[in-house]
């Protein structure tokens, strides 16, 4: 009698909230699984399979290019097919996670265990905070996301130029800029995937959407980790 909200609307709101919570749980579950698979792959390569893997890439240096370029193709494949073929996209996401784990293992020798731990803990903390902010905030982050994407493209081009200059100081500065960019992109991608789900949940595979979002957020986390690892690593070199 005193309920000003019609019962069907209340029921619809409860259903929408339950569906959104289920989607977010699934998406961040895929993100966590991807990070876990990368960590396990990296650990196994650095320990059990160290001699075999390092020996293989030493003898077949051209395979390093495949290891660097194939993740790009896998990312494009996941983005293109996630909503149409969730199972295939999930498999590609796991393969991508393994490949990044192998890459980290090959690079890990350059950094100390303390640097790797500090970078991982820092990137995890930043990622969680910004993902929560992007999911919960009512403020549109579209403008910030667009600026961050433009800045990322400019940074990639500038980094290519710095490959020829080989300036450690410029690399150090670029790492800080990249951290800021991926901090923004983490919040933006979290909000974007929430909005995509709310707008298209009845039209596409929810699992496919969760995999698509997991890919974007996983890449945000990975790039945060890489840039922070460079910062901590270069900081250690300066102290030495």
TrEMBL record:
Family per similarity comment: Belongs to the BI1 family.
Subcellular localization: Membrane
Name this polypeptide is given: Integral membrane protein, interacts with FtsH
CDD domains: BI-1-like_bacterial (cd10432)
Keywords: Membrane, Transmembrane, Transmembrane helix
Listed GO CC annotations: membrane
PANTHER family from the UniProt entry: BAX INHIBITOR-RELATED, PROTEIN LIFEGUARD 4
Membrane topology: Multi-pass membrane protein
TM regions (residue ranges): 30-57, 63-83, 90-110, 116-136, 148-165, 171-188, 209-232
Keyword hit for Transmembrane helix: yes
């Amino acid at each position: 009698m005193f309920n000003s909200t019609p019962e069907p609307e209340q029921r619809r709101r409860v259903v929408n909230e339950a569906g959104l919570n289920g989607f977010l749980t699934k998406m961040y579950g895929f993100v966590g699984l991807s990070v876990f698979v990368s960590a396990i792959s990296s650990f196994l390569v650095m320990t059990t399979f160290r001699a075999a893997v390092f020996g293989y890439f030493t003898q077949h240096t051209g395979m390093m290019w495949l290891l660097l370029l194939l993740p790009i193709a896998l990312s494009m494949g996941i983005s293109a097919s996630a909503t149409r073929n969730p199972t295939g996209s999930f498999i590609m996401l796991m393969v991508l996670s393994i490949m990044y784990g192998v890459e980290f293992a090959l690079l890990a020798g350059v950094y100390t265990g303390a640097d790797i731990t500090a970078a991982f803990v820092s990137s995890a903390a930043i990622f969680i905070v910004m993902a929560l902010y992007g999911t919960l905030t009512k403020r549109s982050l579209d403008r910030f996301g667009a600026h961050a994407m433009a800045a990322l493209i400019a940074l990639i081009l500038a980094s290519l130029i710095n490959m020829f200059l080989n300036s450690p100081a410029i690399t150090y500065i670029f790492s800080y800029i990249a951290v800021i960019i991926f901090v923004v992109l983490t919040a933006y991608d979290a909000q974007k995937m929430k909005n995509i789900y709310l707008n298209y949940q009845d039209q596409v595979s929810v699992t496919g959407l969760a995999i698509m979002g997991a890919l974007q957020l996983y890449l945000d986390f990975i790039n945060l980790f890489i840039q922070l690892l460079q910062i901590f690593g270069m900081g250690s070199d300066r102290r030495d």
